[in-house]
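Ticket #4471: structure output looks truncated?

Reporter: J.K.
Steps to reproduce: submitted the chain below (245 residues) through the standard prediction queue, then opened the result file.
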Amino acid sequence: MAPVIQLDRVSATKQGRSVLLDLSLAFERGNIYSILGPSGAGKTTLLRLLNRLEDPSVGAAWFDGIPYRALSPISLRQRVAMVFQVPVVFPGTVRDNLLVPLRLHQRPDAADAALSRRLQLAGLTAAPLGRNAAQLSVGEKQRVCLARALMTDPEVLLLDEPTAALDPTAARRLLESIRELNRATGLTVIMVSHQPAQAQTVGGQIILLVAGRVVEQTNVEQFFVAPATATGRSYLEGALEEVAR
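Returned output as attached by the reporter:
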């Protein structure tokens, strides 16, 4: 089966500085990928490229065999959804928030049962659709953002450090919900994290990014038991983060 997203020798430059260097990656449908690496490694830039919030300076990307540049950002984002670090809810109710992507993409509004289903997939059952979204806890807001991203039935879900604003208990629950969402729907999940333990929680594949290059890609179990590179071992020992600081 062809990968759902493929990158071929992609590089990205910002303000004259190389951020990503010669990346070639294939993201297989239905898998979970955790992109790890020290601060400044290019993790968020990679995620933004996958959502066409930025375009590469060099190289090419394909979604389901179609060149990224042949897809409008709006049409791509119906199929490749993104959840950001800090949860942002729009004025109004939980229902209003879930309907935003449908209206943005000019789709018919969904029935409450369909909205509640997305909330359940995001692990949120205690927030009534009529509740003011601004009154939710930070953890609940992040789950609403996750449910909102699911409204267009995307094939790929991009997560940029989705637990950064959450306390440890809420963070673990969200990660467990992400793992269960993948298992229940077959959704491809690509998550950026600076915490290796989070990758252990969700499982799947590890992509270790250092100074804009992929230095290791393997399954979670292999990486934490016996990383294949000295750089991988240094990362797990915390040495790379210390150097980045």
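Triage note (M.O.): checked the attachment and the full token line is present. The radius of gyration is 18 Å.
Status: closed, working as intended.
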